[in-house]
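Subject: two folds for Thursday's group meeting

Dear M.,

Sorry for the delay on this. The cluster queue was jammed most of the week, so I only got both jobs back this morning. I'm pasting them in the order they finished. Each block is the input sequence followed by the predicted structure tokens. Could you check whether the formatting survives your parser before we put anything on slides? The first protein is the one we discussed after the seminar.
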Amino acid sequence: MKEQKEIKTQQDIDDLMQVFYGFHDSCVFSAQYQSGNFVDEENAMCFGLEENYVLEVIFHSQWQEKALVMYFVGVRQCCLAGFQKYYMNEMLDCYLKIHQDLVAGDDTPLIVWADCDGFSPKSEIARNILQEPFTSYIVASKVYWHLEEKNVDMFGRKKC
């Protein structure tokens, strides 16, 4: 298994931004979500714990020869922009910050990633409407990342 780096501090964010060139000229290659929720063999609904809500996102960049794999754990909200009629889904930069003021009455740190540096979590998350250009964003309790070869399919599996 690849060594995962965890984002816990601003320095961790700075290190990732340096390795992936601030997400300049990058894109979301694929995303896979798992909630941990399921229906068991007795048809009972079972709910995942915070750590079971995981979103794996693979990014490609024209500046980095390897793909960036990010694991968002404890996903609170996620919005991934799909096709846009008048805009390309190319990132020129990104927003990646640790917040402790996004949930009323709870100062638990949350990590916010968005596909543009001008993202404003409090206004964008509240707005949550379909208006181009769409902004992709993810809010999670923890984030881990590593680099891997780009020779993978859309599900992150190695190509033959």
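Second protein, same layout:
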Amino acid sequence: MFLIVGLGNPGKQYNNNRHNIGFKVVDAIKDIYNFPKFIKRFDSEFSKSKIDGNIIFLIKPKTFMNNSGIAVKEFKNFYNFDINKIYVIHDEIDLDQGRIKTKIGGGHNGHNGLKSIDQLVGKDYNRIRVGVSRPSKIFENKTNENISSWVLSDFSSDEKIKWVDDTINKISKNISLLINNKDCF
């Protein structure tokens, strides 16, 4: 039994933000593997199904990013998830756009969603880090970075074409390999 958490903020105004890449990946997994419609429970929207014989819970916390740990803790405690069976998909500013890296545990690197989960659940969960880069790496002569504004801004249509959709599909289609401890990124 696995818990796959996509991080993001609820509400249409945040739908295409960089911070919502986790929600987008969870939505794609739901569609690709024909999960049932999301229902509301434990401060989240969730769906449950099987992938390759494994029971999978997909959740999108509705507590806003900074309180994501509340929803993860409620699921973890109610269903008695082992922390090493929890996968959190989130945006990562210190990775180039479209780059995907996985790791177990570690620091939150200023990411408030991870910080909340770390405080309420622990640090040794699996992380699927999706690179959204920093504005200074994307735009010439951009030295004053406002990271909050960056991650809360929408992907451009150029970014969607160049890497966003492909990255979401790559993670979604390979999720079964990932939960079976296969290196796929």
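Two things I noticed about the second structure. The chain has seven helices and seven strands. The radius of gyration is 15 Å.

Cheers,
T.
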